Amino acid sequence: MDPISDFECLQQRIVQCRKCARLVQWREQVAREKVRRFRDQDYWGNPVPAFGSPDAKLIVIGLAPAAHGGNRTGRMFTGDGSGDWLYEALHRYGFANQPESVSMDDGLMLNDCLVTAVARCAPPKNRLATDEIGNCRGYLKKELELAGDKKIVLALGQVAFQVFIRLWRESGKRSNEPDLKFRHNGEWNLPDSLCLISSYHPSRQNTQTGRLKRSMFHDVFRRARAILDASG
């Protein structure tokens, strides 16, 4: 098996996916109608593939592309406020070559990091239905399987945390299971030398209300860097 080739084939399948009628209708409507500030831009309007390489040691899992972020630019966490927070933190701790992510051709490269999500289509009001999560979870499961060198899984938000836990339990590695309850900056050592870290999602709902402060978000990535540096 060639993880890189299999990963690329998987991303091609993701981009062509039309499993969820509601999400297909919404993502395409947004891409047609746009918003005033982006009216001169061509929207991606398709499922958004993961960004990075499957041989990364850090896997970051978000919720879904934003309607005028990833759904516009075609890259995870790119072109919106959440992405501003994420890539600034990744750059600060050595996981990205620059702190900004605005478009697919902006020169951004990740270092030992893969950014993916629970769902690959922008949902209305940023809310996913249970069946939509179920339709997409197989893609995340396969990505995690292909990520054979992963050392840390960082779940952004409670939904990403819960979906990862279900996938992990389904893998049959539940021996000596720790107390897995979502909290910001939570950390758990799982079997096979895998570390799970949880963080509040850097959504505007969290950042603009002060629930998530930049220093709190940086703490998560500082810890991830320390773990990887210690592991060699």
Describe this structure in words.
With 232 residues, this protein is an alpha/beta fold. The protein has a single domain, classed as Uracil-DNA Glycosylase, subunit E, CATH 3.40.470.10. It is 41% helix and 12% strand. It has a six-stranded mixed sheet with strand order 1-3-2-4-6-5. A hairpin with a 3-residue loop joins strand 5 and strand 6 (194-199). Helix 1 (3-15) runs antiparallel to helix 5 (130-146) and helix 4 (81-92) packs parallel to helix 8 (214-231). The longest helix has 18 residues, at 214-231. It is globular. It starts with a helix and ends with a helix.
CATH homologous group name: Uracil-DNA glycosylase-like domain
CATH class: Alpha Beta
Outline: globular
> What percentage of residues falls in helices of 4 or more residues?
40-55%
Number of domains: 1
Question: Could you give a quick summary of the protein structure above?
Answer:
The chain has eight helices and six strands, in the order ααββααβαβαββαα.
Question: Features of this protein?
Answer:
12% strand, 232 residues
